[in-house]
Amino acid sequence: MCSISSRLSDFPAAVASVSDTKSLDSRDRPEGLKMRIASAFAYIAENTSSKWGLYNGSSRGYALFRADEYGLMESIVRKAPPEQTDFYALDIGCGNFQWGTGLAKHFDELTDLPRPFTLHILNVRGEKYLEEPVSETSRCKLYKLGAFKIEELFEQFKSKGLDLENKVDLIVSRWAFRHLADPVGTFSQAYDLLRPGSGILSIDGFFSLDSGDVEDIKLLDYNERMVRLFLDTKARFLFRPYEYRHSLGHFMLQRPDASKCELPMKYAGLHDVDYKWDIGSRCITVFSRVPQAFDHKERLDLSRYLDEHPGESVIQGDQSFYESLKQNGIIDAALIVPFYTSDLPK
Description:
Blueprint: E1 4-8, H1 31-44, H2 69-79, E2 86-92, H3 98-109, E3 118-124, E4 134-136, E5 140-145, H4 153-159, E6 170-173, H5 183-193, E7 200-204, E8 209-210, H6 222-233, E9 236-240, E10 250-254, E11 265-273, E12 283-289, H7 303-308, E13 314-317, H8 319-327, E14 335-337
Parallel strand pairs: 2-3, 2-6, 3-5, 6-7, 8-12, 13-14
Antiparallel strand pairs: 1-11, 4-5, 7-10, 9-10, 9-13, 11-12
């Protein structure tokens, strides 16, 4: 896929500083990783606008899964219990704020919503934003938060007086996590922001390594590794294969309950990569992961289904999650298949 550097980064006290917890905790990031995060953030925070025009969103969203993201947020509001009057949507790595601005416009134009409420639309990016960060419309409170250190979600929101743990109804992110030094740790934080039982995360793929992978890095299937990461959460989710400009697949997850994200891994090191990887931090974090029961299963090859359904969208994942989204017109995928051949109907 891409060329890489031939050595592991210097990573002072990488393992010694990690506590003996059973699951990943971004607060356990070793000092070397914290330094890389700080360096990457300092570089991007010098800018005052996003250069990633292709993935900055539009007036109809990012179209991850070819989904109607604004319709999804609308569906969440309509189905919520009547006592809920505050809703939260978050765009992580929001480009030039197109997604959030379009979402506010969508909600302000709706005429048949069931009750008064406020939709808080939080847009965060590493680049500076020099204008007023908060504005309000008839139904929405729009936050445009620049110079935001994305890899420290909880600390950054709390510093701005926002306590969002267990409150966010929808998180979207397009082509942002792949640029982070620790996208896995940031993913874990984002998961814990979701509203238990209903909150949805829609995101595209990013890179990570296991401690034994360094020699075979160019041969790894990173979409398969992303599927495994999502399986590790034990939440129901969907995966859509996607190939364009070295992008990885699309993923959509729904948080099942109030349990925090528990990924069976620990920090183990950093691996440097060159610019051909299109990773802003120029590194991939390495983890030591505890093997899981599903690891030995054969991953389903979608090629046969793609051949049988030419021109149609074939996705993998949880059947009930898929059906709930399709019935509400959120996604138009023609076929949903399980992850493993052993799970297929005979």
